[in-house]
Amino acid sequence: MADPAQRFWAELAAAYKSAKRPTLKRLVRLGNQQTPPVKIAMSTLNGWLNGRTVPNRDYDRYVMALVDFLQQEAARVGSGYARRPEGWWQQLLAAARQEREAARGGRPATRAATPGPPPGPVTLPADLVGFTGRTAELDLVLDLLDPDGGPGGGPGGPAAAAVVVSAVAGMGGVGKTALAVHAAHQARERGWFPGGILFADLRGYSNGPQEEVAAVADRLLRALGVRVKDLPGTDEKLDAWRLHLNTLAAQGRPLLVVLDNVREPGQIGALLPAAPHRALVTSRHTLSSLPARRVELSPLSPADAVDLLDRTLCDARVTGQRDDALRLARLCGHLPLALKIIGALLRDEPVRCLADQADELQDARDRLDLLAYDGNDDEGRPLAVRASLELSYRHLTEPQQRALRLLAAAPGADVSTTAVVALLGESATHARRLLAGLARIHLLEPATTGPERWAMHDLVRLFADDLGQRNAAGDGRGAALSRLLHHYLTTAQEADSHLWPEMARPASGTFTDRDQALAWLDAERGNLVAAALAAPAHHPAATGLAQALATYHTHFGLFTDSIRLSTVAAAVFREAGDRLGEGDALNTLGAALVSVRDLERAADTFRQVVGICRDAGDRRHEAMALHNLGSALTRLERLPEAAETFHRALALFGETDDLYGQTQAMGSLAALAVEAGQPEHAVPILTEIVVLFGELDDRRSQGTALSNLGLALARSGRPDEAVTAYTDALAALRHAGDRLGEGTTLRSLGAILVESSRAEEAAGAFADAVTVCRETDDRHGEATALTELGLLRYQERRFPEAVDHFTAAATLFGETGDRNHEASTLNNLGGALVAAGRLTDAIAVGRRELRMCRELGDRRGEGIVLKNLGRALSELGHFNEAADHLTDAVTVFRELGDPGRAAEALRHAVAARARAAGGRSD
């Protein structure tokens, strides 16, 4: 029988072949689709599929996803492949790995010794003790260095043999040298380079002059054993270096040269060896003109950063203070240099807790100064993040330095090229060149949020902002920020004008259609909020962005953003004495508060708006505020007060000849009639209102009216007509882009489909509602849809699914603070658990619900829970406890005047007592 590794490779190859050999790019994309994403190199995949390497433990999650994908593809194409269970693959992989455990990542540890000259010199710095993380990057470097294969293998010149290690995060201290040295030590242990492994620091970012190429060649020749008296003159040293490389190649003794801290390709071009030799180069620049493969480093993952901190400290603090360690790693930007500095500081204070150190770093103003330690690292460099960044900054041109300082002032997590043009006040061509220059030295990086977007590491931003504050006058920082805010405001206003499809608008110079405007709003959402909050009170963006984004926030459920911006805008208007502006901002605030179910505060806010408009004599806006107040009162179930408020709004709309407002108020009164139990009265009114909104070409309001009509028809016992109304409402709301209204209507449609015994259609509507609510962050709506879906599955006796839906719904209701619905959903969950035979879990949920009912003062709910708990406890044989709960239930139901439930609970209590005494139950 084949050994485990051979068996693993054969099985993986068979699955790959049966899946019709998907491209390696597709398999890399599979890694990116995992949660969290798994970074996987094509060369690593190639090694697995071609029987050269066995995946290490860091790839376990990806390997299981890979074999599942391959087996699904094989089934899809009908290749006849026999699917293997996940456990089988796990056992096979573990056996293969155990066989190859002598080699990291499944590589042979060393080649078998062969007769020949002794190995060449090794001048590497010592390997880093406790090297951690970088699994994917290390695998890729080793693939590229491996003389037997990898993309860099085979005959060729420098293009085939060079590997560039650079940092996406864009700064010193990200661990480039540590990775290169560790990989070189791994190569040495495997006997890959019998000609030797040579290391040279080019000092491309030091305070002193760069190393001359001839001087580096001199050092390399000396390391190879060339005697001083035999060294040629300066002009011939590069020729001598190439001659030695050729000699080693002819002897079959490849050499690895590690060139560290390279600033520009001209420093090393003449030093790069041809195949079969290899070169490993590190740089803060991308070295784009160098013909080489690149392995780009980002800061460590949170887990790897904490692991590095733990290894640096060598004590129990990280294990015992995990959350504080994660916070500390985040404040260090997950940057290895910063983590080592903090580790050194904490080693000097062995009794200091991590929370204290994190609290000290929390103040961004002092963080860079705190990230420093007296002394140097193993390579003689200062242990200070600021000093490391200074080395990169010093090599920028003056325009690049100014651009970096101004970019640090841009509010938000990233910035688009278009916004940078406004910020810098430069032409697009010049701005792009500056951005490209900063990205080459990795003080800026392409953002992950999309093309033409740029981001800074947190510590780079602190460094650049500190410089920017000191050079604010010379840089024109205030004017630059004003230009950027103006860009955001005017573009947001233009985008807003596209959000209503039914409104005619002039041709746009920025957006051609609604979809393009929405794409810009989605991309800039975080920046627009940050810009509004950062804008000085005198700048129009301080209030204008809240107004420009109001429709976008409402349509897409971004209520938290809306509340923050409108609150700030109202304060700015109030301070400026602009009462109507304040009223407008408060109106937006009230609408957002209604959507997050902060209804009392919403009603108070709308009352303020009514007062402001009345004092200003603005009758039309007073009518609108009254209408909004009526809607809040309806949600609070204060129906008489809501009706009186809607009538006041209707009268004012009539006085101002506002037909649109009158139609809205009539629609709200009709919807209120439905809630008051008069649906037949509401149907003809709502039917007329649907027509009126159609004539006004207001699809959003028409959709809302159709949804209200559907409810009126449903409660009038006309389900088929209700389904039609809801379906028409969905079409109108989707056309208008009203996602919030779409989610609400989907839930209503699902409910009437359930009543019509159209279960699967109802399940589809509820599932769609869950999706829409998640996309709009409407957690309460999502919880409601999940509850309805749970009730449907319970009716169908699909109890495990019902349990899942009720569990998720109860959690969401709890997160939104709706304790009443949380309690009722827990009751549903308890029933589903009992039906699923999970009595112990049902009792735990029941006890939680009982505490909640008592906290809420819900005596009826308390009685029901006590009865259900008693019956579940009896089923488990806990008769005394069951009898106690059932007796308490009897007391509650008698107090509530519910003799039927009291008698039922008493009967079960007597039966439980009898069983507890050893008798028979009734």
What keyword list fits this structure?
922 residues, mainly alpha, five-stranded parallel beta sheet, three-stranded antiparallel beta sheet, globular
Short description:
It is built from 43 helices and 10 strands.
Question: What best-fitting shape do the alpha-carbon axes yield?
Answer: globular
Structural class: mainly alpha
Round the Cα radius of gyration to an integer and report it: 35 Å
Average pLDDT confidence is: 86
| Order of neighbouring strands in the sheet with most strands | 2-3-4-1-5
The percent range for strand residues is under 5%
Kindly report how far apart the N and C termini lie.
66 Å
Biggest sheet architecture: 5 strands, parallel
Number of helices: 43
Stretches where pLDDT falls below 50 for ≥5 residues? Answer: 102-114, 150-160, 164-170
Q: For this entry, what is the oligomeric state of its chains?
A: single chain
Strand tally, please?
10
Helix content: 55-70%
